[in-house]
């Protein structure tokens, strides 16, 4: 845990372009340790791209992000240390289809030399129990429902014992009946004190769980407020029109 | 819709009759040309007589083919990774190698290795070594391309998940990308393997001692080329066919863990 007062994620003046499209324009965001921050906004607003910059899945074009003790953009070694400290949950789960659930969880702790086989397996079983799928550990991802797969993906991210968890629209690819089981796991995580940055369209979840909600549109960060302020007191025109469309 | 179905039903007997008549006519014509006396005079005991020679030769052919495929596959995977993410000069060299060895006949390569290489480099190789080198170099060229397409077929999300988990680069390739890529390329890999198995017959030009070399020797020695060649054709077919079926089985077994069973 970083000392109080120093944010665990500190993004300053972030710019990012894909060819001619300027998708992030001078974005600043500070996240303190233990905070849950939800990023919302219309599609194409740059929120997923911003999330992917935090663990170096995309390169930063301008500005820098301090993640824990490390600064991006950085050397490959620094990038690796950021990634081992930041877990990521993808929209499409991205589980390894040729490995069992248990192997999906143990691969990274073992390959990074963090744990031996039995240590990693114990940890994995504990995490699978925590996300409520301890019976499925020897199955392959394709044998699970979407909600179960996403819970495995969350457990896989936790297996590296990260300080920060990133969620990129974790429920957008799920059937409606599977959304809540994933959100419930995320709520439990949020209350456990881990730092979470969540790109989502689930406004109910954001309102209930987030410490802060951030609104992005056209590559800019327009609103950064507590849930109660966000839904009732912010008078940003684009936020109002966004909320009126989805609520 | 209804009308066309009716028309189909009516036309069915006619097409059936016509095709049967044509088939019978073809068979009759072919049989008319067959010299049954000559067939009856064929003497396949020669196969039994030289069974040990044949067995040894089959073993040699299988050995050469599997060596060429296994080494070629390993080299091919490494070269494919280099083509995909190596520095530009390396990519150019690898691409040049692949395009040269893939697009020239094996027989020419065989002569390069066996006759040109000693002149140019002073390194002499036996016929068997030359055959192995030429086959391996060509299979590596083919398999580089196949491995490359397999690797590119693995979804981008798999790379991202591996990177987001902080896996070391070697683990990303060995644990995540290559196992999935290899499953994807099992069918074309099997086709290439059977192709090389048959192409190994060209090595008989250097009298390497594999199946076709011995077949030609036995055919000449016994004056029974029809029997010997026909038998060997059957052997190539049986081995090639079994290998192909095996590959499909393998694909089935390896694919089953990824297929939904719900």
TrEMBL record, chain A:
It comes from the Bacteria. It holds the Pfam family ABC_tran. The keyword ATP-binding applies. Residues 9-243 form the ABC transporter domain. The keyword ATP-binding applies. Keywords: ATP-binding, Nucleotide-binding, Transport. One of its GO terms (molecular function) is ABC-type amino acid transporter activity. Belongs to the ABC transporter superfamily. This is Amino acid ABC transporter ATP-binding protein. It comes from Mesorhizobium zhangyense.
């Amino acid at each position: 845990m970083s000392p109080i007062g120093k944010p665990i994620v500190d993004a300053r003046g972030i710019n990012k372009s894909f060819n001619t499209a300027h998708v992030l324009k001078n974005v600043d965001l500070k996240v303190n340790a233990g905070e849950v921050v939800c990023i919302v906004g219309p599609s194409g607003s740059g929120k997923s791209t911003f999330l992917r910059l935090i663990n170096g899945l995309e390169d930063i074009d301008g500005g820098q992000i301090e993640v824990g003790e490390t600064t991006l953009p950085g050397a490959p070694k620094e990038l690796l240390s950021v990634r081992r400290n930041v877990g990521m949950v993808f929209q499409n789960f991205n589980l390894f289809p040729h490995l069992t659930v248990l192997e999906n969880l143990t691969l990274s702790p073992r390959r990074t030399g963090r744990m031996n086989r039995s240590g990693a397996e114990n940890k994995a079983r504990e995490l699978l129990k925590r996300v409520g799928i301890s019976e499925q550990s020897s199955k392959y991802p394709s044998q699970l429902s979407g909600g179960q797969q996403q819970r495995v993906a969350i457990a896989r991210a936790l297996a590296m014992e990260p300080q920060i968890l990133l969620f990129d629209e974790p429920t957008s690819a799920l059937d409606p009946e599977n959304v809540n089981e994933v959100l419930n796991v995320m709520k439990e995580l949020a209350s456990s004190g881990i730092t979470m940055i969540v790109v989502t369209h689930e406004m109910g979840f954001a309102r209930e769980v987030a410490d802060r909600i951030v609104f992005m549109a056209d590559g800019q960060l327009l609103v950064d407020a507590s849930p109660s302020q966000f839904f009732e007191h912010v008078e940003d025109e684009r936020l109002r029109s966004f909320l009126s469309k989805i609520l | 819709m209804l009308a066309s179905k009716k028309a189909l039903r009516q036309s069915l007997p006619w097409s059936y009759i016509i095709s049967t008549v044509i088939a019978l006519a073809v068979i009759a014509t072919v049989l008319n040309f067959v010299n049954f006396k000559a067939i009856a005079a064929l003497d396949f005991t020669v196969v039994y007589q030289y069974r040990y020679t044949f067995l040894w030769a089959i073993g040699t052919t299988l050995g050469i083919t599997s060596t060429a495929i296994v080494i070629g596959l390993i080299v091919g995977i490494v070269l494919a990774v280099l083509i995909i993410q190596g520095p530009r000069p390396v990519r150019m060299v690898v691409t040049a190698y692949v395009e040269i060895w893939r697009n020239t006949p094996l027989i020419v390569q065989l002569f390069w290795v066996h006759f040109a290489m000693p002149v140019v480099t002073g390194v002499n190789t036996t016929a068997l070594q030359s055959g192995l080198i030429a086959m391996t170099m060509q299979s590596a060229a083919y398999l580089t391309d196949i491995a490359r397409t397999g690797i590119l077929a693995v979804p981008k999300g798999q790379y991202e998940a591996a990177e987001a988990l902080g896996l070391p680069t070697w683990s990303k390739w060995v644990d995540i990308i290559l196992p999935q890529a290899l499953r994807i390329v099992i069918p074309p890999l099997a086709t290439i393997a059977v192709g090389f198995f048959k192409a190994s017959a060209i090595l008989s030009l250097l009298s390497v001692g594999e199946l076709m070399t011995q077949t030609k020797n036995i055919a000449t020695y016994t004056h029974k080329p029809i029997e010997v060649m026909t038998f060997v054709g059957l052997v190539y077919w049986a081995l090639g066919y079994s290998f192909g079926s095996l590959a499909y089985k393998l694909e089935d077994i390896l694919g089953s863990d990824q297929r939904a069973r719900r």
